[in-house]
Here is the input.
Amino acid sequence: MGPDDVLLLVMLIALTVYALFGGADFGAGIWEFTTALQSDDHERRHIYKAIGPVWEANHVWLIFVLVILMNGFPLAFASLCRALWLPLLLALCGIVFRGAGYAFRYYSRGTKQELVMWEAVFAVASTATPVFLGACAGAVASGRLAITATGDYEADYLTGWMSSLSIFTGIYAVGLCAYLAAVYLAREAAVAEDEGLTELWRRRSLSTGVWMGFMSLSGVVLIWLDAPVLRSGFTTRGWLLVIVSLLCGMGSLIAVARRKFFQAVVASSGAVASVIWGWGISQYPIIVPPTVTSDLAKAPNNVLWAMILISAAGAVFLLPSLAYLFILFKRADHD
Here is the structure.
């Protein structure tokens, strides 16, 4: 395993952590959006208590992925920035406005109209961000981005990223976030011994989980029809993770139905992680299908090794700090 493979593995791990924790936080806002801001104050306090005050830390993982991609695989980073500048910019706007909406709604002492406005900003931005991030992932996975082996982009800068798979994955990402949030919030309510909220989020977990099962099967069919590079990888390397994702998804539904919420959290996280790892392993060693591979895009080895050492040193401080942050505030939430 070369240094480029190590960095790709680190990126995949960081992307998985971001999907699990950041995705659940986005999902809380998605539920506000899908219920048309009709949540009562008790339910809203439960949502905000569950995602704060650790929600800001989750974007560290996305920034980490982008920094590794920029420095470790500059050709791939530059080409993706050219091709995906519009959905990435819209996702960034969503992250910024979501943070503003959350902060002003949570801490504001304004009028009812002002609170509703910030609730709407939080809900819309929380929904839009995974749409555009998911669309970026789908655009890459489709292999239809007109990126040459030299990193040049030869399609329309406004619409070249759009395809049937990118549109599907944008919607699919919203569903994954809502699914994770529902399961996590059901467990939070059960720990808090709030029977009403536990049952509410239990029902939402079951309905969303069933819906996501159908969407996952549809996604496999769409990949088979629309993403030849990914299809080839799935049939040779990634098929086992498809099965793992299916089994974890079914296990999470069974656990929720039996009110085993800790097991449901583990299983639902496994289902989402398997989707991401199935994509990464099936596409390896290609970063931007079909032409930009890790060998073609990587920086010199001395740069790669320096990044690995810096990442390892940073992890010594970052990981215990993040773990303590979660332990401290989650314990405080339930004391």
Q: What stands out?
A: The beta strands are 286-288, 292-293. Residues 3-334 form one domain.
